[in-house]
Amino acid sequence: MHPFNSIVPSTSNSQPLAYQQGSSLRPLDDGLTGGLGQALVQEIVLRAWEAGQSTESILADCSKHMNRQDAAWARLIVEELEVNYRPTPVEIGAYKLRLRDVFRKNPTSAAMEKIAAETNNIYLKKIAQQAVVILRQAEANGRSPANQAAANVKLAHVLEIICRCKVSVLLFGNSGSGKSSVACLIISYISRNRSITKGKIPQILVLDSHVNDWGRMPVVHKGADILRTLHLVVKELERRQENWANQVENLPESKRKKDWFYLIVVWDEIGGTLAYAKTEEGKKLIKEEGLIHPSDALLRLGSELRKFEGMFFGLNQSGNCEAIGIDSSYRNNFVDVHLCESALMQIESWDHSCSEYQFVYSRRDGYPCVVRGKPALHPSHSQHTVFAEGSPPIEFEPAQQEPLTLRLPVKPLVFRGELQDSYVGHLLPAASSTPSGSAPEKQKETESDNDQLYQLFLSIKAGRSQNPPLTKTKICESWGGRTQLNHQRYDEALDAYAAQWVAEFVSDGELQMRCEDLIELIWSVTPHRRHKEKFRKCKQILEDILASLGVIPPWQNPSNIIKMPLRKGN
User: Fold this and answer.
1) C-beta separation of 312 from 301 below 8 A
2) Are 326 and 334 in contact (CB under 8 A)?
3) Omega of the bond leading into 379 within 30 degrees of 0 (cis)
4) CATH of domain 158-421
5) How large a percentage of the chain has pLDDT more than 70?
6) Does the pLDDT at position 317 exceed 60?
7) Which residues have C-beta within 8 Å of that of residue 317, sequence separation ≥ 6?
8) Torsion angle of alpha carbons 18, 20, 21, 25, nearest 10°?
């Protein structure tokens, strides 16, 4: 029988049914004036509650059968019951099962605090709060269940593996999983590890169509510019390979040096760039400008850059390597790091009873991590037990970096600091970016000429670096004869890339080589009186180059000027 039909109105002297201990409700009026009266409303609500009706059902019935004043009183009674009623043993058992399930997935005090905050009933809340106190004490003593689980599992260390393997890095994870933070943390560490960077401070380039904040690192973000930049980076790799081949061919082993700046390339949103390359716009751009396809650039940079003074980082949301063109034959060229959702997908095929699976799965509400098929702590967000997009990473120093000198098709973005502190390279001429109205054939011809010119420069540099250095005539002979055309090409190549060569002798804002020695090395001119005019011109060129690099020429630096004593009488 429905409580509203079975209840008998109490007399005016009847008292409301007793509240649970701690209740703040008090009977205000036990009469029937203006409605059923508070005592009767309370009895109706209590009988319905004890009969197992839900909160929503009770309030709906009260709204239907009572006036507004009685229905409001019924709502207050229901809210008080929710907080103060003593749960049945079955309800307590069900709540403890819920706590046990949360503990199995995330055995931390933060997870228990979240459950306690979601519970209104004081008796159930007390059970959760007791668990919070126990876990806090264990965490303060360094004996938390989460740490004990880690102690039973052999964890992989992301930084240790990357530094030991010295290969390229792939970071996979959903939005907010900390890919950019992990990349910045690893680069910060590598930039200070001179055994990896061969004693050099690295130059850094970021390609990111989502325009994330990369601090002082220069960022190229537009789809077309990313394709062009990838092409230029691969060309830089090829030039280094050719330079090394020339050294092996022409120099004794003791004289060979991989004398290039250390280059770190970060390519974020790989899948987005590959998708752009499949659009009509992307296909047209690649065809008309003769660009290297980004899928080929990924394989080449990932497998070859590390051998020629560089390191490659690839970031993507999907952890499917085959989807971005990296099959099993190329997988060993990368350290694959999976974060959050990508990490959970990696362990789906693991034995669910093994401790490694349970360790990663226990962090499913926070920031799980898997590196090369092994469980690991998230490098930048392991301190957070609950995932929240925008959670701050651990504190670490920004990467050490030199201003990038690589040619780019567009001026990059820099989120912090001044652009000239992060990029001092030369932008490609407008023709190299296919302006409107230019013929594709002319564009290809221009790019081919630029590549040939750079190859000639590498040949000049290798020849002049020998001991003794090769003369201009000897180098031209190696190109097919001492012809006027070869001498002209020699001068054009040197004019185009002399600045890049000079930059290699600049460190900490100062020229690290004597002016006379540098002019002799690059332009084959000595300060001998027979070459006085030519030496003066070369010195002026060097002065202009140093000015473009922000370097005060030594002969203009006041600290290098010797002050002669004044004559007597002056």
Assistant:
1) yes
2) yes
3) no
4) 3.40.50
5) 84
6) yes
7) 172, 173, 174, 175, 269, 271, 342
8) -70
Per the CB < 8 A criterion, the answer to whether 267 and 314 are in contact is yes
Q: For Cα atoms 281, 285, 288, give the angle at the middle one, nearest 5 degrees.
A: 130
Tell me which residue has tokens 């690893």. 186
- Cα 523-526-527 angle, rounded to 5 deg: 130
Collapse the DSSP code of 313 into the 3-class scheme (helix H, G, I; strand E, B; otherwise coil) and give the result: strand
Tokens of 16: 């409301």
- How are beta strands 334-339 and 168-173 bridged, if at all? parallel
Residue 433 has pLDDT above 50, yes or no: no
CB atoms within 10 A of CB 404: 22
Q: Which of 381, 367, 335 is nearest to 161 (CA)?
A: 335
Domain ranges across the chain:
3-84, 89-151, 158-421, 433-560
Residue 504 is encoded by which pair of tokens?
Answer: 């290699």
Helix (H) or strand (E) run with residue 462 in it: helix 440-464
pLDDT (average), residues 367-377? 94
- Kindly state the tokens that stand for 125: 């809340």
What's residue 17's pLDDT? 37
Q: Which two tokens stand for residue 335?
A: 């350290």
Residue 391 phi/psi, 5° resolution?
Answer: -65, 135
Using CA atoms of 537, 539, 540, 542 in order, give the dihedral in degrees to the nearest 10.
130
- Gyration radius of the chain's alpha carbons: 37
> How many residues can be counted in the chain?
570
Q: How far apart are CA 463 and CA 275, in angstroms?
A: 44
DSSP 483-508: -HHHHHHHHHHHHHHHHHHHHTTEET
Distance of CA 114 to the CA centre of its chain: 29
